[in-house]
RNA sequence: GGAGACGUGGCCGAGAGGCUGAAGGCGCUCCCCUGCUAAGGGAGUAUAGGGUUUGUAGCUCUAUCGAGGGUUCGAAUCCCUCCGUCUCCGCCA
């Protein structure tokens, strides 16, 4: 959520910034509502002040044994006036809140202006795609030939876009998770285990709600005396439970930066993306991911984004997977992000770089709704900055390892870094 | 899942319709005293929002005692719903 004060004091400026990411802010409506908000809020508060002081007078008079009736008569219509003013004030405030909840973050100045992913800017490349002297297979052909991947079984058990993996592939996925968690742990990220279902408050905190409910799997409690806000959702990313650990918390400044890592499955319905990446493991309703989360001092968040991105990169480097880093343009960054680097890994089966990690700085956008704060030197709580990034998407890493390390005979060489996690095996 | 007890500031803990944004204690900050240490004395110590304002200064108003409703001129206090914690029983990995 943007700072409401910014919408009052620099509305035109904010609207211009949002326009670069293709969002039209309804300036006229906000101005109208803002005038009403001020009018009714002031009125309601004035009436509350009157009521409070009158009630105290009544209390005193009663204590002294005086007749209260005339005082009561005096404030007879105060109550209805107050109710009206409060109702009106709430109404306007709710309208403003609803608008604000759907306004995305403003992009950082270092974000390239552009309309779509075509305008993203490549920052750097690492590694050289391997030259194959045989015909490369994509991960699906590779895995099916070895009996590692069984799409029919997944469809039977659940439906399309779910995976059943067997044998060495299943083991390698587990190895990748262990490897990533250990690496991040050694780099100072504390490992945390979190629930895979979250409530609405958490989803609002990180910005998935109210705008992106369609992408989420909702668990209905199916119980007649449960209210709506008890409904839980499967997490679309560990970002939600992990970042929400800091909701309504005031952190000691000395404890910043906080760095966490977590492995979770992720569940996404992605209703709009049917038809894309229908083959194989690239786009699934359920996938494994290791996530990195940081809560930092506001002055250090952009520096922290570089560090966090570098941490995700280090996994690709240790696995020897060629990749590039892309600075997402204003038209392509996510709703809550002020700046995002995507890591794209080279997939020989597609002869393309494909997203394997997305590292974002949200500045105080999430922290404001989360009330994730720290107490600074002046003793006053202030909003922290939050960041997160995939470190990495495990399913896609698995795809990348298969395709980049495939051999002509259909076997796959195990990247050296991963061998200790697979009993020392050199190939699978 | 059943039965009971309970949810107050950083923590402990009073308060049971009005003078309570909340006694007291602990902790913390500042000051005084004491040749270090210990002890003692004094002051301060929630969060959010609004108005005023060049101002994150000052002044002022409002809201918040688990959350949300309700009763009342007035609610931490009474009523309802929900959430959570503890104890006992049941069930279970």
From TrEMBL:
Residue span(s) of domain Aminoacyl-transfer RNA synthetases class-II family profile: 171-415
Reactions catalysed: tRNA(Ser) + L-serine + ATP = L-seryl-tRNA(Ser) + AMP + diphosphate + H(+); tRNA(Sec) + L-serine + ATP = L-seryl-tRNA(Sec) + AMP + diphosphate + H(+)
InterPro entries: aa-tRNA-synt_IIb, aa-tRNA-synth_II, aa-tRNA-synth_II/BPL/LPL, Ser-tRNA-ligase_type_1, Ser-tRNA-synth_1_N, SerRS_1_N_sf, SerRS_core, tRNA-bd_arm
Pathway: Aminoacyl-tRNA biosynthesis; selenocysteinyl-tRNA(Sec) biosynthesis; L-seryl-tRNA(Sec) from L-serine and tRNA(Sec): step 1/1
Entry EC no(s): 6.1.1.11
Subcellular location: Cytoplasm
CDD domains noted in UniProt: SerRS_core
Domain of life: Bacteria
Pfam families for the chain: Seryl_tRNA_N, tRNA-synt_2b
Keywords per UniProt: Aminoacyl-tRNA synthetase, ATP-binding, Coiled coil, Cytoplasm, Ligase, Nucleotide-binding, Protein biosynthesis
EC class: ligase
Coiled-coil segments on the chain, per record: 30-102
GO molecular function, one term: serine-tRNA ligase activity
Binding site for ATP: 268-270, 355-358
Positions bound to L-serine: 237-239, 291, 390
Keyword ATP-binding among record annotations: yes
Annotated function: Catalyzes the attachment of serine to tRNA(Ser). Is also able to aminoacylate tRNA(Sec) with serine, to form the misacylated tRNA L-seryl-tRNA(Sec), which will be further converted into selenocysteinyl-tRNA(Sec).
NCBIfam families the record matches: serS (TIGR00414)
Domain notes: Consists of two distinct domains, a catalytic core and a N-terminal extension that is involved in tRNA binding.
Subunit structure: Homodimer. The tRNA molecule binds across the dimer.
Family of the protein in this entry: Belongs to the class-II aminoacyl-tRNA synthetase family. Type-1 seryl-tRNA synthetase subfamily.
PANTHER family: SERINE--TRNA LIGASE, SERYL-TRNA SYNTHETASE
The name this protein goes by in its record: Serine--tRNA ligase
Organism: Thiomicrorhabdus marina
């Amino acid at each position: 959520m943007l700072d409401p004060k910014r919408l009052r004091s620099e509305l035109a400026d904010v609207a211009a910034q949002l326009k670069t990411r293709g969002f039209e802010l309804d300036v006229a409506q906000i101005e109208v509502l803002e005038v009403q908000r001020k009018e009714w809020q002031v009125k309601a508060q004035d009436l509350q002040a009157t009521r409070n002081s009158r009630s105290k007078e009544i209390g005193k008079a009663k204590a002294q044994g005086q007749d209260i009736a005339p005082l009561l008569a005096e404030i007879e219509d105060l109550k209805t006036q107050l109710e009206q003013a409060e109702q009106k004030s709430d109404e306007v405030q709710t309208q403003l809140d609803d608008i604000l909840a759907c306004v995305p973050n403003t992009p950082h100045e270092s974000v390239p202006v552009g309309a779509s992913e075509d305008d993203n800017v490549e920052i750097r490349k690492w590694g050289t795609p391997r030259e194959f002297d045989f015909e490369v297979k994509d991960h699906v052909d590779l895995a099916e030939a070895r009996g590692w991947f069984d799409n029919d079984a997944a469809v039977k058990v659940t439906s399309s876009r779910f995976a059943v993996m067997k044998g060495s592939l299943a083991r390698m996925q587990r190895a990748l998770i262990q490897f990533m968690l250990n690496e991040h742990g050694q780099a100072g990220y504390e490992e945390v285990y979190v629930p895979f279902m979250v409530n609405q408050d958490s989803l609002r905190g990180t910005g998935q709600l109210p705008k992106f409910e369609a992408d989420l799997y909702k668990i209905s409690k199916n119980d007649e005396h449960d209210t709506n806000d008890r409904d839980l959702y499967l997490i679309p990313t560990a970002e939600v439970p992990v970042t929400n650990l800091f909701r309504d918390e005031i952190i000691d400044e000395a404890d910043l930066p906080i760095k966490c890592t977590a492995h979770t499955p992720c569940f996404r319905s992605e209703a709009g993306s049917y038809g894309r990446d229908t083959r194989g493991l690239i786009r699934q309703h359920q996938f494994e991911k290791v996530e990195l989360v940081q809560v930092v001092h506001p002055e250090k968040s952009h520096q922290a984004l570089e560090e966090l991105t570098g941490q995700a990169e280090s996994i690709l480097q240790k696995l020897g997977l060629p990749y590039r880093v892309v600075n997402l343009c204003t038209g392509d960054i996510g709703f809550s992000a002020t700046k995002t680097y995507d890591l794209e890994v080279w997939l020989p089966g597609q002869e393309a770089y494909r997203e394997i990690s997305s590292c974002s700085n949200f500045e105080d956008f999430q922290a404001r709704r989360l009330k994730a704060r720290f107490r600074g030197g002046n003793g006053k709580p202030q909003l922290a900055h939050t960041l997160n990034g995939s470190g990495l998407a495990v399913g896609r890493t698995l795809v990348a390892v298969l395709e980049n390390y495939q051999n002509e005979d259909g076997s796959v060489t195990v990247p050296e870094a991963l061998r200790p996690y697979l009993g020392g095996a050199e190939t699978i």
